[in-house]
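quick one
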Amino acid sequence: MDKSTIICRCEEISLEEIEKVISNGARTFDDIKRLTRCGMGPCQSKICNCLVAAAINEKTGTPFHEIPLPRMRMPISPIKLDTLATNSTTFSSVKSVLDEVELEDGKVR
Amino acid sequence: MKAVETDVLIIGAGPAGLAAAFETASRGLDVTVIDESLSLGGQLIQQTQNLSSLPSDLSPMRGFELAAHLIKQIEEYDIRYLLGHRVIGFYQDGTIGITDEVDVFPVKTKKMIVATGAAENAVAFPKWTLPGVLTIGAAQTLINRDFVKPGNDAVIVGSSDFAMDVALQLSEVGVQVKGIVEKSTGVLSRNTEKVKQVNKIGIPIYVDSSIVEARGMGAVEEIVIKQEDRVFTEKADLVCIDGGRSPILDIFYQLGTSFGFQKELGGWVPQYNKDFQTDCKDVFLAGNAAGVSTQGALVLTGRLAGMNVCEALGAVSKETAAVEKKGLWKELEIVETKYNLDIWHARNRHVDNFTHPVLKDQFIS
Ligand SMILES: Cc1cc2nc3c(=O)[nH]c(=O)nc-3n(C[C@H](O)[C@H](O)[C@H](O)COP(=O)(O)OP(=O)(O)OC[C@H]3O[C@@H](n4cnc5c(N)ncnc54)[C@H](O)[C@@H]3O)c2cc1C
Ligand code: FES
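structure w/ flavin-adenine dinucleotide:
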């Protein structure tokens, strides 16, 4: 496939950029995401997930069942901050991303 | 909006979710159905083709007729519908975060049936992001649900049963289908009758072929196709991508279920046992989310998940449940083997793998 082909359409990341980070050692979707922003767009990797897995498979020969899924965080799909910061009194919905950090002996796991 | 407490929360109101709603509500459980769309029926709404492999109690009918049937079946029960609502995530104490796009509010449930369906996979080629390139399902939605003609000259990329159905439906509304491009050496559709119809109306199917690129200024205007050594260009203002479908997994991922990989079921699938129960014991699943299959099978998996939830909540006796479940699995075998034996085998392998999943504890990364 032509290297200029867009793989992540939300963030406009090309096959060339994805292959470059794979040759630098990226092995999972999340590795690639951290290095390129691939998967960080409005669709939250729903569109590029399978294309990235195919690129990893093609470039490294890793079988599909050994390429883990991208991490899917809350909120599952985009939501207005206004809505998230709901005035519902029964429920505190706003959570800091830090709530997800897990500590072990005072250090981040 | 106030907090909701319920016995059974069903996420997704497609064929699987509606079938599960009937099983649970008809046995007296308090059922809540949530769907982000404003109507019931999920993807069945735009399916105008005749469905042949349905469970034995249903006569052959079209997709939207099946939706109407499943909706009518639950009319008399007092089900709580949260339409136009989305699940946005889960909290540590098991509370489910729901939004109506104005507020976020909590739902607490004893059991949950996740029937969120499948999403279409992309196929990338240079300039596939041009306007006019759609998934085949989106094209079908536009013509059958929204009555919008998405283009005049179409090329379809992929040759599944679904592609054949939509090729015929596009032709019926006056879209000229210029060709179907398939990268494998043969047509993927197993429905020989449909393939014959496609041939009969003169739509060429190019096997062993691929898309070199799409071209156009601001929108797709033409598409370059490569078949063996031949490269040719078709004028097209509509390109429909049929890249197959994969289960929608975000809800399962957040819940922390395990996953297993089964190519025939659409790739990664939440791990579940014979009771359609995941390794989070209060979470059941059904429909395409449990492996991409045919509508008849989706309805049956919905019934199975519903029956198991009824048993878990004591709404049916163990003995009754055992008899019902045996019958439903038998029907599932009949419907699914008739549709595609590979899918039936993959489902069984997947269920057998329940005790040794491939992807586990992925949330801690
Ligand atoms: C556009 C399109 C057209 C299709 N046409 C055909 C066809 O012609 N032939 C064929 O064989 N198959 C077709 N399919 C496949 C189709 O997925 C199945 O036939 C069937 O509808 C799946 O049933 P289901 O109950 O598993 O999921 P669905 O019918 O998809 O129902 C799942 C429901 O869950 C809801 N949902 C998902 N996530 C959330 C959330 N976080 N919060 C709240 N609600 C949520 C969705 O809105 C949806 O209504 C099509 C798929 C698509 C995408
Ligand atoms: S296509 Fe990559 S995030 Fe949407």
